[in-house]
Amino acid sequence: MSQNSRLSAAIDAKRDDLVALTQQLIRIPTLNPPGDCYRDICEHLDARLSAHGFQTQLIRAHGTPGDSEKYPRWNIVARREGTHPGDCVHFNSHTDVVEVGRGWTMDPFGGDIKDGKIYGRGACDMKGGLAASIIAAEAFIETHPDFSGVIEISGTADEESGGYGGVAYLAEQGFFDPTRVQHVIIPEPLNKDRICLGHRGGWWAEIETKGEIAHGSMPFLGDCAVRHMGAVLDTFENKLFPAMALRRTDMPVVPEGARQSTMNINSIHGGQPEQSADFTGLPAHCVPDACRITIDRRFLVEEPLDQVRAEVTGLLEELKSTRANFDYELTELNSVLPSMTDKTAPIVQTVAQAIQDVIGTPPEYVASPGTYDQKHIDRIGRLKNCIAYGPGILELAHKPDEYVGIDDMIDSAKVMGAALEKLLMPQTV
Length: 429
Fold this sequence. Notes:
Layout: H1 3-13, H2 15-26, H3 38-50, E1 55-60, E2 74-81, E3 84-94, E4 113-114, E5 117-119, H4 123-143, E6 148-156, H5 167-172, E7 183-186, E8 194-199, E9 201-210, H6 225-245, E10 262-270, E11 290-299, H7 305-322, E12 328-336, E13 339-340, H8 346-359, E14 364-368, H9 374-379, E15 386-388, E16 403-405, H10 406-424
Parallel strand pairs: 3-6, 3-7, 7-15, 8-14
Antiparallel strand pairs: 1-2, 2-6, 4-5, 5-16, 8-13, 9-11, 9-12, 10-11
Helix pairs in contact: 1-4, 1-10, 2-4, 4-10, 6-7, 8-10
């Protein structure tokens, strides 16, 4: 039996273990925000990986956004060294999941199985990928105990809110320095036959319109900030959104709708704060003197960040010059530049061949519509040899009844294992 066949059989034999591990991870409700159960999931991974010979570190990202005594930002890095010198292959998965949201017909933290799929918040994004990488590494080590180099597996915090308490912090501490780590695979759910080379950029900002409070029966004595915000939204609808729709990128972004520039209005708040659910009174009669929106602008590699900022600011300044009493304040919340790994990079070529060998088809090369932790590995860690590859359907991320296919996890684990063979067992190439 060939080495690849032995590894494939070893992964098949771990099918029940893969399913159980994925269920265990889903059942730890690592909601972000606020950052629940980060320590719990790191301790679970610590117990698992330590038992398989990995040296582990639990690392708290002190002082990062959201880190507090109530919600500490915990990460785990596990390292297994081979018997001979060689490259280090690092599998990085985030452990946090987004809010549950409405519309579920399955228990979001049950890890229930139906029709060959495991359901739950984070099943697809990306606890199924994390479990697949662990099974792949364990099966590889059992099949090739004399491997060269190093295998690392990390479970990191806060990817869903920017990754600053996770991969960014670890990168600042040198964990992704190219002298320490040579190859990185992030098992995000991009489909088992795709290699994700990078992602679009992002710019997030808050816009506040100003007004003047007055009695609601005499609005002419005040100035309604919500109406001013209505003018902002109208300008965006008639000028900004049509302009963005005309821009296209050469990056292979999926799905098709993300090949253009986009912007989402994340939230809008104006006037009196919403009262708690047990409040039974009526609202006071006031003209709102402030209204705020948060915008999520995703931009293309062909668009400079300064241009993205200037386009929004220019429309607001135009309103200020043409609309009576219009005043605003813009606060930038965050920005991320686009990132792309070259198709000729070693990790791309290696995983491409592994997909061909395991699945029998050449891979599709794609880019992600949203940013993920490659941005920090690229810009802080200065490591360019990084891709996203993992099981799951991208469009299921953050949706109700999120799931990951068991067969897809098995196939992805085999691809990851085959990549380890090519990188850490050079005689098999």
